[in-house]
Every structure is written in structure tokens, then in C-alpha cells.
Write a structure and sequence with these properties.
The structure is a homodimer. By secondary structure, chain A is of the alpha/beta class. Chain A has 15 helices and nine strands. In chain A, a hairpin with a 5-residue loop joins strand 2 and strand 3. At the A-B interface, helix 9 and helix 14 of A face helix 9 and helix 14 of B.
């Protein structure tokens, strides 16, 4: 049974640098703990992984923010670390804490045991993609995603989050050969994983290089960007129906390396709030759409302040492309995942302000 | 009684963009927990504040790293948060945790109560500066320091460290007027504090803008840089003997804003490891010495790897100024404070590598 035709293609058009009547907006982690309905579903699921591995729950929470806000895209509810979990490292989330792996990858013997996992172990993700795509019924496109090879490696070596990246960087500086082996396996696994999401129905895919920005200049290019490139080179360009599947790369804290990233074989670059969108547009040039980049903490201010900051971000990008052909386009997003403490009604103020103000800019 | 004449002026010369026969090196937090002798003194002092507020202990730990390594500068042992402590906020350090304030600044009433503190409340710092300067006996210059107005505000509003800056940014976006009032008071307090350190014997001063890099483009300029500027405008240029006192500004994560910082009224810009020193040199131009920027995690690698990375950082800066007059100079440092888990013998490998390799570069 084919999927329903798409009713709102604003996001996909902007990814492909085609004109739209408003700037599309979606929010990283838009299905999350700031929504009481999400917390209710999570409570029924028992745990984060219980939620992520259950197709019905994953479908339910993915659609929750779309019921509240006129967002222009949905993103698969999952985690960036499903791939190393499928490698046998044992992912879990303690209440109120970040991800933890039961096993870590720190020695040559650990690396010897590492391999691209059987994609059947990630079947629950692909099933969720198909289920969500059906449930969306063509309302908005569905984005699939994964962590980047480097970001996965950070968690695999550290065994969880870190505030200094001491173990993963210690390994990188001491045994660059081992780090390269880990990253090559991660890259091939991420590529297979994203291709399977595309086969299952994802209409765009995003690589989250959440920790690329902690690397030194030179090391970022060698240990993060090179492996993002290796992922991109293996990705399908179109889905089963021949529709182009845009690829988004987001390196948090990567603003200094835009000139290194502008030639990446992808359609969209994600940016955080430290980057000036106008300057990024000038640097990146005609090759990419830009996605981002408001500080999620803006959402703690009252609606009038949110509107002002939204206008500032839209205006910093400058006039978007209008008319036929391709030109500069902007996809509005946060520069990082939404905070669990965000008042839900402030999200409404943000999404409405993006739509209203971006229409006004096009009319000017 | 005048202070002893300086025997090693390499650091001060490099700050003033004068040639030196090697690249000077010192390390942020060089008197710290990675040294067993530091831990022994801290144990005797009972607490971090017990250590920092006792002139003899502060002198002892400041000199400890100089006994082990041929460092080219000493830095006052203290904390970046002494100023808000003197404002009455009650600073403490729980074992194994970061700084905590007993009182926070979050409301208009809190801001109404805030004022530049009587510098007598910081007498222990100035006494330590004089004591350390005497104990150094001219071996190397002594650097004084403070947190930047914005960085102090982060802790004052959050009440301690933060991983999302939700409260301080929430206040900034909601009530920019209150944030500007806090920052103006902080700036005037920091300026008075650094001037008193200069009077007491500090031969250079450094402003640590540790959290400037978490701000959005536009907000950094408005809420951090503008107040660093306000500090710099009030600082003494020379000490009681007419010697120039170089001023160093370090914004962690500020690499994207070097063009905004190149016109700051200071002698040295500190950089973290995400910045390419050669590119920074080209951007900043002829006005400033550069300080930085090796990743402190390099110190977890074996000595051969440390040497290789040190050479890479020195070479990324390019050929340093030689001969008379002024020209491009580099002060070697970490891009962040040294980790408490660092093996002390690896620090020796780093310092020796900087001296040896930088002499070799000058001879080439």
C-alpha cells in the first residue's frame, strides 16, 4: 500500500532550496518531556527504551507535537544511540540521567569485537518509521536520523555523557589508529541504518554530530567530518518512488568549520545559535539550505520576547529565495534540543511567530 | 621594599609582541589537583576557600608547579568568583563539586541589593598577590585575574555551574534591563578588583570569560563583550614603577567572534583548541599577541604524542616575530584549565616540548 501524498511540502522544498510561502519550522526533540502527554505515554511505557522500541508508543509520541503546533515536519521518535546499542553495548536511560552503556569500547580487544550490526536488530526503528509515516497520512514529511560516527564513538568510549571527553580524546590522542577503526565501523553502520530508514519511509535524514564541536581544529576534520563524509557517500539519494531524500548535517559548535563543511555532499547544514545566519549564508554560498538556530532558552521568555527573537533570527538570514529555480532557503529550528522545562504555550508562540513573520518578510 | 627584578621576562615580552628566544608557556589552573603536593596543602587548609583565603597557603600552592616545571609565568591561586562572594553571595565549594552560592540574583529586588563591593573584603586576595610576588623573587612574572562580568553573572543567577544556562539566559531574554544592571555592577567591580591586584604586585591581568561562548551571536556582543570592554577601559596600563601591565582576555568558545574582539583595548587574546592559530593570527592582525590553545586532553596521551601535538600547535601559529620592534607573538597555554586527572610527568613533557620545539622553529 503506497503512502498518502504529501499535503505540506514546505520543509522538503526548503531543503532543496526551492521557494516556499513561509519559512518551515520544526524543533529538535519536539516530541519530548516538556509535553505532559509525552510524559504520560512514557510513564505507560515504563522507560525511555520501552517507549523507543514500541512501535505504537513511538508513533503516538512522534505525532503529539503536531497535534498542538502547526509544525512543518515530524521527526522519528528515537535516540541517537540506537546503533551502538545494536552493536551489543547495552543502552539504557536512568531516570533523570543521560544515556548509559553497559559495555564500553576502550581497548584494542574491544575494537576487535566491534562490527556493523545486523540491521534486523534495529527492525523496531524501521517499523516505527513506517508506522509513523502511515499515521502522518501525508500531513508533513517524516525525518529519520542517527548520531554521527564521532558522536557515537564519544558515548561508546565514555560509556555515557561526559563533561570533558577525557577518555575518548585520550584514546584519540594515544591510539589514533584504534579511533579510526571505530569510526569507520560506525560510519558504515550509520549509513546502513539511515538507508534502511529511507527504505522504511523516511523522507529526509539528519546526522547529529552533537559532539563534533568539542574537537580541536584539525582533529574535527580528521575524526568527525571525514566520517560524516563517509556516511553521506553511502546514502541513497532517492526513495523507492524516486523522490529526493534530503540529507541534513548538524555539528553542534561547528560554526568555525563552515568552510570545511560547505562542500559536504548533503542538502542542508544545521547551525547553532553562536552562528550568524547571514554570515553563514555568505560563507556556505549557493550549495546548501541552512537550518537553525535560535537559542532554546529564548522559550523561557514571555511571548513578546520570543516574537522579537524569532524576527531577529529570520532577519539575520536575510531575504529568502522567491520564485522559480533554486536559491537561499532557511529552515527554522532551535540550535539544540528543546529543554524539558519549556512551557508548551511558549512553543506555540514561537511556531506562530516563525510562520507569521516569515510570510511578512516575503511580502515586503 | 621594592620587588626583586625580573629574571625571566619571556612571558611579558611576548604579551607586548616583542621577540623572545622561545615561546613562553604557562597553564591555566597550573596550581591544581593534578599535583599531589597541592592536594596535601588543600587537605591541611580544610577547604578550597580555606586555601584561597589564607595568604601562606595561597603562596605555597601558587609556587608548587614552578618547582616542578620551567614555566614562564605564575598565576595567582584564587577563584574567578571571589568578586560575587565579596558582594555577599556566599561562595563555597562542596567536595568533588563545583562552586555554589548561598544567595542568588534572580529578581529585581535581588538586583536592587547588588553593589560594587568594598575592596577591603577582598584584602586576602591582594595580600596573597603581594606575598606571592615576594616569594617568586623575580623568577617569573605573576598574573592576576578575575571572571568576566558575564561569567560572574552566570554563576550569580544560576547559583552555581549549569549545563544549560537556563536561568541566566531566561533572565537575559525576559528582562534584558535587569541583566544590563547586573553586568554594569560586575564590570565596575571587576575593574576595581584587577586594579587593586595590580597595585598589590600583579604584572599582568587576565579576564576569564569562561561562559561567553554559550551566548547567541548578537547576545555575546551585547551581554559579554560590551562589559569586558567596560572593564578594560577602567584598567591601569602601568604599575607603580611605570611597567606596562598586559591585559589578557579569554573567551572560551569565542572563536567565531575574533573579528569583534580584535579591536578590544587589551594586549593578548586567549583562544581555545577549536581555533586555528594561523587563521586567528590572520584575522586578528597586528594588534594582539595570541595565547593558547592545546586541548588539555592531549596530556592523557604518552609523551611522544604530546610532543607531536605541541609541535602542531606551535607550527599552526607560524613563524613568531624575531628581531627588534613588535610583531606576531604566541604564548603557549592550554585551551582550558588542566584536568585534575592529568599525570604530572606529562606536564613536564609538554613544557619541555614547547621550549625545545619553539627554539628549533626560531633557528630554522
Amino acid at each position: 500500500m503506497p503512502f498518502a501524498p504529501l499535503q505540506n511540502d514546505t520543509f522538503l522544498r526548503a531543503c532543496l532550496r526551492q521557494s516556499t510561502d513561509h519559512t518551515p519550522v520544526w524543533l529538535m526533540r519536539q516530541a519530548g518531556r516538556y509535553l505532559p502527554e509525552y510524559c504520560a505515554t512514557r510513564a505507560r511505557a515504563g522507560s525511555f527504551m520501552g517507549l523507543a522500541t514500541n512501535v505504537d508508543y513511538a508513533t503516538e509520541v512522534t505525532l503529539q507535537p503536531l497535534e498542538r503546533y502547526p509544525l512543518d515536519a515530524a521527526i522519528l521518535f528515537s535516540d541517537i544511540l540506537t546503533v551502538p546499542d545494536a552493536m551489543g553495548l547495552g543502552l539504557s536511560f536512568q531516570q533523570g540521567e543521560g544515556p548509559k552503556f553497559a559495555k564500553t569500547v576502550r581497548t584494542e580487544a574491544d575494537v576487535d569485537r566491534l562490527a556493523v550490526p545486523d540491521m534486523d536488530r534495529l527492525r523496531y526503528v524501521f517499523d516505527a518509521v513506517t508506522s509513523i509515516r502511515r499515521a502522518l497520512d501525508g500531513r508533513v514529511p517524516l525525518i529519520g536520523f542517527s548520531g554521527s560516527p564521532w558522536t557515537l564513538a564519544c558515548y561508546m568510549v565514555e560509556g555515557g555523557g561526559s563533561d570533558d571527553y577525557r577518555l575518548v580524546k585520550g584514546l584519540m590522542y594515544s591510539r589514533p589508529d584504534l579511533m579510526h577503526r571505530i569510526l569507520a565501523i560506525n560510519a558504515d553502520a550509520v549509513a546502513a541504518y539511515l538507508n534502511a530508514q529511507i527504505d522504511a519511509g523516511a523522507q529526509a535524514v539528519m546526522v547529529f554530530d552533537s559532539w563534533g564541536g568539542v574537537l580541536a581544529d584539525g582533529k574535527f576534520q580528521e575524526f568527525s567530518l571525514a566520517y560524516t563524509r563517509r556516511v553521506l557517500a553511502q546514502l541513497k539519494r532517492t526513495d523507492a518512488n524516486g523522490a529526493v531524500v534530503p540529507r541534513i548535517v548538524f555539528t553542534k559548535g561547528g560554526g568555525l568549520w563552515l568552510t570545511d563543511m560547505k562542500d559536504l555532499d548533503c542538502e542542508v547544514l544545521g547551525l547553532d545559535w553562536t552562528v550568524n545566519l547571514g554570515r553563514a549564508r555568505a560563507l556556505v554560498g549557493e550549495s546548501k539550505a541552512l537550518q537553525g538556530n535560535i537559542d532554546p532558552n529564548v522559550l523561557f521568555a514571555p511571548p513578546e520576547a520570543i516574537e522579537r527573537e524569532v524576527a531577529g533570527v529570520l532577519e539575520s538570514f536575510g531575504p529568502p529565495h522567491q520564485g522559480t529555480g533554486q536559491g537561499p532557503t532557511h529552515i527554522f529550528n532551535l540550535g539544540h534540543g528543546i529543554s524539558q522545562y519549556t512551557p508548551p504555550e511558549h512553543v506555540k508562540a514561537l511556531v506562530d511567530a516563525v510562520h507569521r513573520h516569515s510570510r511578512r518578510l516575503r511580502a515586503a
